[in-house]
């Protein structure tokens, strides 16, 4: 008796007890459906985050500071002070200040593709009659070769460090009441969003002038008096300064993990940014009479040529006594968290499958009781114990395989619906559609394999029991 | 040449804490081509002896040789091979698989016998035709008369070309006319194909008419053997 005979026999028996087979298989379908949808959710989240990291080149990105920083500080670069007096913990050497000369040294390290200073400050932007607060970020034109700036949603990244061209985020434009239509991910306006926001084509936005209004230090307000003569001050010694840029590109924050989101709504060339008068750290320094020194930066961003270059470049930088923050380190931590999440999700799904397995065992035992005489007949006409065992095994495995196939379909269907609902109801309108669930090949193959193994385990006892039936007793059985 | 040789065979069943002897020191030889009837009252041990020779049961002591091979030393897998290759068994209650057609019942024996897929169907049809059931191939046991069902069982027993047919009250559930038809079929197989027949029956007449040798059992012992026509 070969395998194809056994499969034919197994399916023949399953067909005969159709209702019971369907109900038992349904248990497996639900088990596998639950397991795969749970695991695919965990995998999907992980994939989205990893891809968001990769999409914005975060795996090759390092942030250099004089002091150690953690991810929690990233949102607020102002917290990272230039600790000229601070000592780097990793090295006994005092950390050098982050100046242009430090920048030059870092730029010369092998593997470093580009190093640029972190320059960002709060501004107001005005487009026509609408204005909003956002953060301005200065980036060198050379960043146009790097993700995510190499491919903007619309328009182009500027190619001149002194040009007056700006890249504006899609979100900032929305706050300026312009909803830029994206043919790739059409969004509909919700009730809440429709207050004055009007949908526009990107082409009509590109080339528009946008005013950047920055807060400046206005010494004239101090008059001739001492800076501590506060009562003499009619108001704070600040003024406003306007600089006009042209919208050259529109960027869509791919996800909350992108570099872009951390830095706000408008990106301008580094040379042009330096010309914007502002109330920055150095102006306060000037105010306190400590000016005259070289400008220092809160941090320096480094992109390496490849992920492989990260280690060497990092070592060189750390040798200088500087602190390196790499997103890839964070990813390792995040991955550990994912492992825990995946395990919990997997465990819940597995429980469902184990319950299904008990259903299989129950069905098989019932089947043996019903088929005792048939087993006796098969033995009398020459079936060996191994063959009897295998017939029941193949039946259990068939339930497992069929259950897995339909379970995968169920899991896939459920996740499609959940994904649709999540995208339509939970994600804010305008965000690019996210695929929250991911069915990699290993999950599909693993689910089928796991289902078959569980089914075989469930069929183990019934199969052994069937094989050990005494044929003489069985033939007397009604 | 003896096809079956049984020596000092005993079989004891255990029921709870009580040992019930079914066979006590039975010795018996069956020559190739013989038609042997095992007769005796109910509980005399004749069916037990047949099951032991058929490899369905194992002896408590003694030896059973089938074509020189000792069944009592065989592993269970070897006994299964003995059942599918050397002997064909037919029972009083037919023991056909009720949800399978006549053809499928015969084909199942061929499946276990390892017949190639391509020849099974053709061979099963031929076997059924040879027992006069060429027109009832796709009928299930419930749709067949007792005589027809027993013919299917005989066709199935012949599927893997056994050297011996072991029949346990093959006509016990049949009327007289049908019984005679079945017995004539069995005699034909014995005579024309030279298949050795061991038949358990309590019908003296049947044994006397068809067999070449009669063995009488009582309380698990052989109490007489004779050629037909000689009173035991």
Tell me about this structure.
- The complex is a heterodimer of chains A (478) and B (232).
- With 478 residues, chain A is an alpha+beta fold.
- Chain A folds into 2 domains: 195 residues, no CATH class; 178 residues, no CATH class.
- Chain A has 14 helices and 13 strands.
- Chain A has a 6-stranded mixed beta barrel.
- In chain A, a hairpin with a 2-residue loop joins β3 and β4.
- Chain A is elongated and about 115 Å long.
- Chain A starts with a helix and ends with a helix.
- About 6% of the residues of chain A have low confidence.
- Chain B has 232 residues and is an alpha/beta fold.
- Chain B folds into 2 domains: 156 residues, P-loop containing nucleotide triphosphate hydrolases (Rossmann fold), CATH 3.40.50.300; 67 residues, no CATH class.
- Chain B has 7 helices and 10 strands.
- In chain B, the strands form 2 sheets. Chain B has a 6-stranded mixed β-sheet with strand order 6-7-8-3-9-10, sandwiched between helices. In chain B, strands 2-1-4-5 form a 4-stranded antiparallel β-sheet, with helices on one face.
- The longest helix of chain B is centred in the C-terminal third of the chain and has 18 residues.
- Chain B is globular, with a radius of gyration of 17 Å.
- The mean pLDDT of chain B is 92.
- Classes of the chains: A alpha+beta (478), B alpha/beta (232).
- Chains A and B meet through α1, α11, α12 and α14 of A and α2 and α3 of B.
Structural class of chain B: alpha/beta
What is the element string of chain B, with H for helices and E for strands? Answer: EEEHEEHEHHHEHEHEE
Q: What's the story with the biggest beta sheet of chain B?
A: 6 strands, mixed
Largest interface, with counts of residues having CB < 8 Å to the other chain, equals: A-B, 22 and 28 residues
**Number of beta strands of chain B:** 10
**What number is the mean pLDDT of chain A?**
80
Count every helix of chain A, treating DSSP H or I runs of 4 or more residues as helices: 14
The run of helices and strands of chain A is HHEHEEEEEHEEHEEHEHHEHEHHHHH
């Amino acid at each position: 008796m070969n395998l194809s005979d056994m499969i034919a026999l197994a399916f023949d028996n399953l067909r005969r007890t159709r209702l019971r087979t369907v109900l038992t298989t349904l248990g497996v379908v639900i088990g596998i459906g639950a397991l795969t949808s749970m695991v695919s959710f965990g995998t999907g989240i992980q994939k989205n985050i990893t891809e968001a990291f990769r999409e914005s080149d975060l795996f090759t990105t390092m942030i250099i500071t004089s002091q150690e920083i953690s991810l929690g500080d990233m949102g607020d670069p102002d917290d990272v002070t230039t600790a000229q007096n601070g000592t780097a913990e990793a090295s006994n050497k005092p950390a050098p200040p982050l100046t242009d000369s430090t920048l030059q040294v870092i730029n010369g390290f092998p593997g470093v593709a580009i190093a640029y200073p972190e320059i960002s400050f709060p501004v107001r932007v005005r487009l026509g009659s609408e204005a909003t607060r956002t953060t301005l970020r200065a980036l060198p034109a050379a960043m146009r070769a790097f993700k995510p700036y190499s491919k903007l949603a619309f328009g182009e990244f500027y190619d001149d460090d002194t040009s007056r061209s700006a890249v504006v985020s899609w979100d900032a434009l929305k706050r300026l009441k312009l909803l830029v239509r994206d043919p790739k991910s059409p969004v509909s306006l919700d009730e809440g969003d429709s207050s004055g926001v009007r949908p526009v084509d990107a082409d009509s936005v590109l080339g528009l002038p946008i005013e950047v209004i920055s807060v400046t230090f206005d010494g004239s307000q101090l008059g001739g008096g001492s800076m501590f003569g506060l009562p003499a001050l009619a108001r704070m010694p600040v003024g406003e300064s306007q600089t006009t840029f042209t919208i050259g590109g529109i960027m869509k924050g791919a996800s909350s993990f992108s570099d872009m989101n951390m830095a706000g709504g408008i990106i301008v060339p580094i040379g042009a940014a330096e010309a914007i008068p502002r109330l920055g750290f150095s102006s306060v320094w000037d105010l306190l009479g400590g000016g005259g020194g070289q400008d220092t930066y809160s941090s320096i961003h480094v992109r390496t040529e490849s992920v492989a270059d990260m280690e060497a470049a990092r070592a060189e930088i750390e040798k200088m006594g500087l602190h390196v923050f790499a997103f890839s380190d964070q990813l390792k931590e995040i991955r550990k968290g994912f492992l825990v999440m995946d395990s919990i999700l997997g465990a819940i799904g597995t429980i469902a499958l184990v319950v299904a397995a008990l259903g299989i065992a129950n069905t098989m035992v019932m089947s043996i009781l019903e088929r005792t005489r048939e087993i006796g007949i098969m033995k009398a006409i020459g079936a060996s114990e191994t063959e009897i065992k295998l017939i029941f095994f193949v039946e259990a495995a068939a339930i497992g395989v069929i259950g897995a196939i339909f379970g995968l379909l169920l899991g896939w269907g459920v996740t499609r619906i959940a994904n649709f609902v999540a995208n339509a109801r939970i994600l804010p309108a305008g965000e690019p559609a996210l695929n929250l669930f991911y069915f990699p090949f290993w999950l599909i193959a693993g689910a089928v394999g796991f289902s078959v193994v569980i089914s075989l385990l469930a069929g183990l006892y019934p199969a052994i029991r069937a094989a050990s039936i005494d044929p003489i007793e069985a033939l007397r059985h009604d | 040449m003896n096809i079956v040789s049984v020596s000092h065979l005993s079989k004891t069943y255990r029921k709870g804490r009580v040992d019930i002897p079914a066979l006590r020191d039975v010795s018996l030889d069956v020559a190739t081509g013989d038609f042997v009837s095992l007769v005796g009252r109910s509980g005399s041990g004749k069916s037990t002896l047949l099951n032991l020779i058929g490899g369905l049961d194992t002896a408590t002591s003694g030896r059973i040789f089938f074509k020189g091979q000792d069944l009592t030393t065989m592993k269970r897998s070897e006994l299964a091979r003995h059942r599918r290759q050397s002997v064909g068994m037919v029972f009083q209650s037919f023991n056909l698989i009720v949800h399978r057609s006549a053809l499928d019942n015969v084909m199942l024996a061929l499946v276990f016998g390892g017949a190639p897929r391509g020849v099974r169907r053709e061979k099963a049809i031929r076997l059924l035709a040879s027992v006069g059931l060429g027109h009832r191939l796709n009928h299930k046991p419930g749709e067949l008369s007792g005589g027809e069902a027993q013919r299917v069982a005989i066709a199935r027993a012949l599927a893997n070309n056994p050297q011996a047919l072991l029949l346990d009250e093959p006509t016990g559930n049949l009327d007289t006319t049908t019984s005679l038809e079945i017995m004539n079929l069995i005699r034909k197989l014995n005579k024309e194909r030279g298949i050795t027949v061991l038949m358990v029956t309590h019908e003296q007449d049947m044994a006397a008419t068809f067999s070449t040798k009669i063995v009488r059992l009582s309380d698990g012992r052989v109490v007489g053997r004779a050629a037909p026509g000689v009173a035991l």
